[in-house]
Amino acid sequence: MRKHQNRTLGAFEKTFWLLDQLDSKDFALAAEVEGKKPIDSWRLAIDQVQQRHLNLSAKISLDEFNRPFIEHVDSMIIPLRVMDVENEFRWESEVEKELAVRFNTKQGPLFRVVILQKPKNTVLILIANHTLADGSSLMYLFRDLLEAVTGKQQQVLASQKSNDETLGLPEDVAIADSEINEYVFKKPDPVFPKVESLRFSGETTSQIVEKSRIEQTTVHGAICAAVVIASRKLRKEWDVTKIELISPICTRKVLQLDDNCGLNITTHPVYFENEQNLSFWDLARMAKTGLHGTDKVEHVQNYIEFFRKLTYNSSNIQQMIDTLKEAFNHYIMVTNLVRVKYQTDFGTLKLKSIYGPMVRSGKGMEQTIGAISTNDQLCLTITSDNPIPGILKEMQNILYKACNVSI
């Protein structure tokens, strides 16, 4: 097993690294935990989990051919910020602050932790840069942290391969160009995203799941339908606009990957135009049908090949960035981790809810809906520089009505 993570970036990893030069590609998840532990115990747990996942001790450097690569640093310490707060404290405000503080990918690490200590309970906030992580990565990191802080020893995972390598594709070619110039990293513009959250009861979540099944769609399809209808209603300039909605697709299952911390997603758009006369469930089925085939190896291969053509076999970083400026022009993103895939009772600590992913996407006007169910309760978040006022509440009302939920 390799104990260091030194390799060139895969195509989509490189794409996110390039996009991060244009606009923040940082994201966060938050977890509500019943119970408390001393801060020293959390610090030890973070250090233990860092040893398990090699990407938690890495920075992104450039080689002599202007290829970004993952460089392992043994002495790297994951930043930890702690606050003592009251029960009613709004954790979303701390996520907003964290998303406004950009990672320096040249220095690393590309992760940090915030712990909010309430009188009897805890909120954990994990923040990462998308180059080396995805939403599922942080979902599993919550499990690893809770196991570590409650005394469970963990095995070190093998170094994370890029999806390119998993598919048998070669690494980025070294271009020996006499005109190679050192890329000058620009100071990133400040960002000020807003975050809100909503949790459905277990009973309501069960009704949404069952009604979606009966209607031959998915909960993801229902969430997509709700956000499209709510957006058109509350943002009048979107009333008749063609809406591009993208969904990140996890590649872990189709590529048979483990729980390692890494970027293991593709994305796929569904377009909504002249659909205003369709019923809610017709829209939900449309959203499901639009993602058909994205859970196949062929989709992942085609997706990676597309970004390899855009970002590989060149030493001109600025040219690649200029090309990517035209990418990701969606109005809405629904990033759905579906459900927590592990037990939530850790003895002295119990995982109550996870929220997110909370991430900025697109060009600033977009609405990012995060979704995940914990303990059979669906949690939604909205993250945007320009959030549509009241959109989560409107989505809730739409889902209640569609699923015949009594308010």
Polypeptide structure, described:
The protein is an alpha+beta fold. The protein has 2 domains: 7-166, Chloramphenicol Acetyltransferase, CATH 3.30.559.10; 194-402, Nonribosomal peptide synthetase, condensation domain (Chloramphenicol Acetyltransferase), CATH 3.30.559.30. Helix content is 31%, strand content 24%. It is built from 11 helices and 14 strands. The strands form 3 sheets. It has a 6-stranded mixed β-sheet, with helices on both faces. Helix 7 packs across helix 11 (391-402). The protein is globular. The N and C termini lie far apart (55 Å). The model has no long low-confidence stretch (mean pLDDT 94). Residues 191-255 form the Phthiocerol/phthiodiolone dimycocerosyl transferase C-terminal domain. Keywords: Acyltransferase, Transferase. Belongs to the acyltransferase PapA5 family. Pfam families: AATase, PapA_C.
Q: Note the beta-strand portion.
A: 15-25%
The tally of helices reads: 11
The CATH topology of the largest domain comes to: Chloramphenicol Acetyltransferase
The largest pleated sheet is described as: 6 strands, mixed
Number of domains: 2
Distance between the termini: 55 Å
Keywords: Acyltransferase, Transferase
EC number: 2.3.1.282
Pfam families: AATase (PF07247), PapA_C (PF16911)
Protein name: Phthiocerol/phthiodiolone dimycocerosyl transferase
Keywords:
alpha+beta; 14 strands; six-stranded mixed β-sheet; Chloramphenicol Acetyltransferase; transferase; globular; 407 residues; 11 helices; acyltransferase
